[in-house]
Structure to design on (199 residues):
């Protein structure tokens, strides 16, 4: 397989694109680029996760793992402005876009960090983790994100995951049930599952 978006420094030539999206009732402008996930539009899975997410019942920060150019973290941070958000991605082109997109949309209660999975925040704790995991990076990486999410969540914290049935939703559910006290499939739509796990 050639290079894909789960790459620290994509070598594919930059070809920026501007998109407008309505997410949770607000309008956002995003700059995207080649070498970053879902360049032409906010993908269906991310949109479904954004619209389904519920604010955690406990206090604390929220982390978006595999943030890409930032649609999940930026739209949620815009709504839940009383919380701090951390947007993580291994792809440095993606993190640069996410930072610029946050500024462009006037969202400043967030930090964007280059990070392999959750390594950059492993010493912090969170009220929620949200992720549209990088399926193309393989099951080991996806399940690693689920394990690291469990590690950084506070007791009573929530993990929100979007994953397609054909791309491993059943095995992700099994993995979550090994670690979390409560796991539910909140939404099933067009083959996508929104999973919520409570620590």
């Amino acid at each position: 397989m050639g290079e894909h978006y789960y790459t620290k420094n994509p070598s594919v030539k930059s070809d920026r694109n501007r998109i407008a999206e309505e997410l949770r009732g607000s309008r956002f402008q995003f700059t995207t680029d080649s070498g970053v996930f879902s360049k032409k539009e906010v993908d269906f899975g991310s949109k479904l996760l954004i619209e389904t997410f519920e604010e955690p019942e406990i206090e604390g920060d929220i982390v978006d793992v595999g943030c890409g150019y930032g649609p999940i973290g930026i739209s949620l941070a815009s709504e839940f402005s009383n919380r701090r958000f951390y947007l993580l991605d291994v792809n440095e082109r993606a993190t640069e876009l996410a930072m610029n997109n946050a500024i462009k949309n006037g969202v400043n209660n967030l930090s964007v960090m280059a990070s392999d999975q959750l390594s950059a925040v492993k010493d912090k704790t969170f009220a929620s983790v949200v992720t549209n995991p990088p399926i193309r990076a393989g099951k080991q990486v996806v399940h690693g994100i689920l394990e690291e999410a469990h590690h950084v969540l506070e007791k009573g914290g929530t993990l929100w995951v979007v994953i397609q049935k054909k791309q491993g939703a059943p095995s992700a559910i099994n993995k979550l049930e090994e670690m979390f006290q409560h796991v539910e499939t909140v939404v099933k739509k067009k083959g996508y599952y929104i999973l919520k796990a409570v620590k």
The chain has a mean pLDDT of 92.
